Every structure is written in C-alpha cells, then in structure tokens.
C-alpha cells in the first residue's frame, strides 16, 4: 500500500522509463506485459542479473529500476545499493517472492522505495511504480503490521522517546564481504570476482579469509552452504 493516492505518475512529460531485472525470462515477460499495458509506464531495458542491471542503469538512465532479490552475480539488494551510489536519480522497487521481514528492512536500508510481492504483482505493481515516482513509499499490506510491531517494541524499550529507526543491522559481514561471498558461492574464481567488483585478486583473497574467520567456516563448500541459508543464492 502507498501512503497516499494522489494522481500523476512521474517527474516529467512522457511515460516513466523502467529497467526490469529478473533472472527468469518468463517472469520478465509477464511483468513487462503488466507495465507496458499502462500508458504512463514503459520498460526500456531488461537485465538477467544484478550486475547487468547496474550496467544497464548506467547506460540507459531509467527513471525506475524494478529488481528481483534472488539474482546471480549481484542480488537485487546489492544492486540497489550500487544504484543508490552510482545512479541516485533512479528510484528502486524490489519485486520478490519472499514475504520476509529481514529482506523488507534490508531493502529499505539499500535505498528501495517499495517492496512488492510477485504473487500480487498484477494488483500492486502499477500502483507501486506510480507511488515511487511521487517519492512516496510503497509497502505491501502485510508489512504494515511488521512496522507497527517494531515501532511499538522500540518505543517500549526506549521509554517512548526519540525518533523512528529501522531495526539494528544484525549482519556479521560487510556489504563488500557479502558481494564476495555470493560470487564465491556461485563458483567464480578470484580473478573473475576481482574483475566483476573492480578490485584486485589479492583483495578478494583477503575478503575470503575474513569471511572464513568471521563466520567460523573452513572452505568454499561451507561458504556456499552459508550463502544458501542466507538467501544469497538459490540451492
């Protein structure tokens, strides 16, 4: 749900230009049909993984990027962080099958202005796009209870004073280490990871060593299992 329903889809004349990123071509096709059927929305670029989404955003400068969470190379959350840094004018929506509180808050931290479930995309996605272009947050109805519960808990614990914050970050690793972890788990070599992240192979090896130490793991296999449990890659 958006916080208001004022008319008007976007920042200027012409339809809102959208980048659509999902690693399943059939999903992209279905979502594109929904969006292109609206006169004020148009898909101008597609990507099959998070890294390609960042590349296309830099090349095509879309008004809005719609990102799946579970994608190769970079997840949607990782891509959202990159877009916030490299393409701050591009708004971001997360489109996902995961009705997951942790992913929801991570999406907000990554700079996304909305979180839409694929199961109700035909109902909610168009409204979410328009809300994003009005600089209004869009959240699916189930997250309202999560937000209210979180605010009440924080108010109770703090005595009711102070501002409203997101729950404290509980990740044991940094965003860069998370990127390296995902690529290691996907089977990329240190040189390939270095090329993708524009860092040196020596830096990749240092991140890998830090990951093993921080997480108490021994090898690539255990890193891969951890990445699956964390939702960075699909089994």
UniProtKB/TrEMBL annotation:
Residue ranges constituting the Response regulatory domain according to the UniProt record: 17-133
Keyword Lipid metabolism tagged: no
Domain HTH luxR-type: 166-231
Keyword Phosphoprotein: yes
InterPro entries xref list: CheY-like_superfamily, NreC/VraR/RcsB-like_REC, Sig_transdc_resp-reg_C-effctor, Sig_transdc_resp-reg_receiver, Tscrpt_reg_LuxR_C, WalR-like
Top-level taxon of origin: Bacteria
Alphabetic keyword roster: DNA-binding, Phosphoprotein, Transcription, Transcription regulation
Modified sites of kind 4-aspartylphosphate: 68
Name of protein: Response regulator transcription factor
Species the sequence originates in: Streptomyces cavernicola
């Amino acid at each position: 749900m958006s916080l208001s329903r004022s008319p008007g889809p976007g920042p200027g004349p012409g339809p809102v230009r959208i980048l659509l990123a999902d690693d399943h071509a059939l999903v992209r096709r279905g979502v594109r049909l929904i969006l292109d059927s609206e006169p004020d929305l148009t898909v101008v670029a597609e990507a099959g993984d998070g890294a390609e989404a960042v590349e296309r955003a830099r090349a095509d400068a879309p008004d809005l990027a719609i990102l799946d969470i579970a994608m190769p190379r970079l997840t949607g959350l990782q891509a959202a962080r990159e877009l916030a840094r490299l393409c701050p004018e591009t708004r971001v929506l997360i489109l996902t099958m995961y009705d997951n509180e942790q992913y929801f808050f991570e999406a907000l931290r990554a700079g996304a202005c909305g979180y839409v479930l694929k199961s109700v995309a035909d109902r909610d996605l168009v409204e979410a796009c328009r809300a994003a272009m009005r600089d209004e947050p869009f959240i699916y109805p189930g997250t309202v209870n999560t937000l209210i519960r979180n605010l009440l808990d924080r108010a109770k614990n703090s005595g009711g004073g102070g501002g409203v914050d997101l729950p404290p970050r509980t990740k044991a690793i940094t965003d860069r280490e998370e990127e390296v972890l995902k690529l290691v788990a996907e089977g990329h070599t240190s040189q390939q990871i270095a090329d993708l992240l524009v860092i040196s192979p020596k830096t990749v090896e240092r991140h890998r060593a830090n990951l093993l130490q921080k997480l108490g793991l021994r090898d690539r296999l255990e890193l891969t299992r951890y990445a699956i449990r964390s939702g960075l890659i699909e089994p």
